[in-house]
TrEMBL record:
Domain annotation Histidine kinase: ranges: 421-644
Record field: catalytic activity: ATP + protein L-histidine = ADP + protein N-phospho-L-histidine
4-aspartylphosphate modification, residue list: D857
Official protein name in the record: Stage 0 sporulation protein A homolog
InterPro entries with a match to the protein in the record: CheY-like_superfamily (IPR011006), HATPase_C_sf (IPR036890), HATPase_dom (IPR003594), His_kinase_dom (IPR005467), HisK_dim/P_dom (IPR003661), HisK_dim/P_sf (IPR036097), Sig_transdc_His_kin-like_C (IPR004358), Sig_transdc_resp-reg_receiver (IPR001789)
Protein EC: 2.7.13.3
Domain Response regulatory as annotated: residue spans: 659-779, 805-926
Keyword annotations of the record: Kinase, Phosphoprotein, Transferase, Two-component regulatory system
Amino acid sequence: MNNSTSETFLASSRIIKEGLNNKISLDEEILITFSELIASEPTSHLEYTLQNYINSSGFYKITYLDMNGKGIDSTGNPANLTELPFTDTALTNGQHSNSPAYHGNSGWLEIAYQTPVMKNDTQIGALYAQRILEDFNSQSLFMFHNGQGLAYVIDSDNGEWLITCKGDRGSDTLYGFLKDGGNQESTLLALQNAISEGKSGTITIQYHKTEYLLCFLPLDTPYGSCLITTIPKSIIQHEAFDLLDILKVLLLVLLAAGILISLLVAGRQSLKARSREREYREKLFENLSTNIDFAFMLYTPATHKTELLSNNISEIIGVPVKQALKSPEIIFQYFGPEMEEMGDAFLNGRLTTQCLQECKIGDGPDEVVRWIAVHMIPADYNQYLAVFHDTTKEHHMRETLADALEQARNTNQARTLFFSSISHDIRTPMNGIIGMTNIAMSNLDHPEKVSACLQKILTASDHLLALINEILDMSRIESGKINLKEEQIELPTLISNILSFIKPEIQRKHHELMMKSSVLEHDTFIGDALNLQKVFLNLLSNAVKYTPDGGHIIFCIEELKHSQDIADIRFIVEDNGIGMSEDFMKRIFQPFERAEDSRMSKTTGTGLGMSITKGIIDSMGGHIQIESQIDKGSRFTVEIPLKLPPDSTAKPPFFGRYPVLLASTDTEALDSISQILDGTGLKTDWAASSLETSAKVAEAHQNQEDYFIIIIENRLTPLSGIETARQIRSLKGGSNPIILLSTYDEEEIKEDASSAGIDGFLTKPYFKNELLETLMNYMPTEDFPTLQPPSYVSHRLAPHLSGLRILAAEDNELNREIICELLTAKNVQVLCVENGKEALEEFEKSAAGDYQMILLDIHMPVMDGLETSRSIRSSSHPDASVIPIIAMTADVFDEDIHKSREAGMDGHLSKPIVLEELFAIINQFKEGRKGVEEKE
């Protein structure tokens, strides 16, 4: 048991050693990666590059030296080979290596990694990274068994502490610490010799009058160091109690066997006495086996006879007792081939040492699978003892724990990769914000430069806020707290916004975005616009991100069916990008998952986008389907049911039997448009090419049956729609209104189209209401039913706030300054206070009408915003019930807004404050609560 305890603790210590080695190996891989990257960097960028490496890796210092031994470090100071505090191997010998621990400029113990820098198979310099040893000190690695087990790293030569998990140990060396604990000199000397000789093992020590087990393992890095782990001996020995219970039972069995042997030696007793004694032993053995979960068999190989066999053998293994007594080999046959060798040695007297093996029985289709532990022990007098124990529960428990451990490891690894990635993604915009702020501060006399810097700061801030929102969204979805709003969704506006977001990246990568859709019956729905936009943005941005330059992306929208108040909308995003493996498609919706693919090594991402997308779609009652092949692309199909507004079934107008020419290669879209036009009385004709279009226009004019309107797709062949329009304008009878069907790039072609004689535009996806509205502009009479005009025109609020008096409470000084500056710039009189108590006191002492609005931060000391709002509403002030109170907070979820409403607040401004939203809500409430409610 002592040997097993030592081996168990030694194995646990090796796991800690492996964890430390993994951290060091990761540092080495990072430095090698840096050396490969820095070989391609211009010399003028070295300082900036080294500083970026520091920010992304956590090293204390990184130094680059050229082949002359001269260079620069990450602090911008010049560096020289002779000034290195450790022995060089990378520059002089071209070898990777790690240094022993040394006292560096940081004031801490450090180690240095070094690697040569190669360019075109030629060494051009060397890279050195210095790491503070305490960086490796984490409780998850250096503490175990709920803090009872501790780990340290010492110098193998003198025992000095290199890494300690619990601060000062009271002595500078391990041996001094052990001596103070009352350990003998001989123990210390034996331990010191073993460590200095690079051995590994365990030893018992004394600490606070308690026996501890100390394990020592030599480490490769830091060079010349050793891992020390300690744990109270009683803790680890507790794990052997189950084995001790078995040994107790075995001792009882051996005792019974000893009694049996003693009785056999006393052969002078009568046969009746021996028989009586045998009956007694068998009865005792039967009682013993009946009351425990073990079955025993005592066997004499010389006579091939089973001396004793527990009656519960049939319950544990399933072998009838009488059959097992007659043919003991049948017991081992139940365990299959894996027990064949051990069983043969047991039955034929070749067993020389104790054996333990766990075997599975019950492989049949109608059998219950069980696990049995078999202990075989050579006893005295050439007899063998076999102990059988059902370990099915323990086996399943171990499997469950192993699965849980593996899942925890995978989750931790995924989270580690996620935090590594998100750390980089967050630092990038933060670096831009700090850098542009410094540049602006240095150019205060150059307004153009300051303005450009501020614009870049806003862009970086938006990116940083998007990252934070993505993490918060995932947290909400994982906790099941996602709440969907019911608001009006203008689908054309939504799609236009999405395409404007991804358009710059599409143009940068020279992608071709193809919009496919028939004419949609409805353009307005009821649902959560923001979450729907997130779904589309995630899918489209992924398609752009993972499609190589010059690729094709298809965005298709279809209205499948609808009832009186529900429409099922299908969205398809398809690309010819890098595709996904079948294995990754099974894991794509799990949080923090990213495919391990060299083709996307430079592609940033958190691994949360698809998990968020799936969570939103599920919450909306929809579903998503994925089809993908490696190097061929991916196809995402989303179907979501959306509510229709009450007035969504307006009857179309009747235009009359005017002829209309439709020219396009997209027969599906033309068929859909034709059906809508037929319903308005218009007579449609089709053309499939530019040549056919021009010919039909000329023929119609010749027959004095000119088309009333010509609708042309820009992707017409062999001439484009614009060139076809230009050709039509040159023909006799080519004065008809021409409407161009285009994709999302209307603005880019608008000038060229206008010069070619195009009168109007329709962009994909096509909506019925928009189509009819466009045609109505060219009708000869105005006696048609008025269609509901599109409501998806964006506009900015023009605030007229001069003369307003506002009371604002904000505990953060910087935020307080920002809100005051923004409002003062619009001639608003603002009184800013630091907390809710001051705001309440100022309001209560003011006269009626002194303030037209109150802005309250939610989280403030002394009195928070919610309590302040409730106190204002319950006060005796004349304006207590009518003055608008607006919340300013980073709490942006539905339940947060509900809490502020319950506290008497009228509006909710989310931080960071957006200028347009601030002025919009002030405009909305500047006339007071009652006026606003009447307007609504």
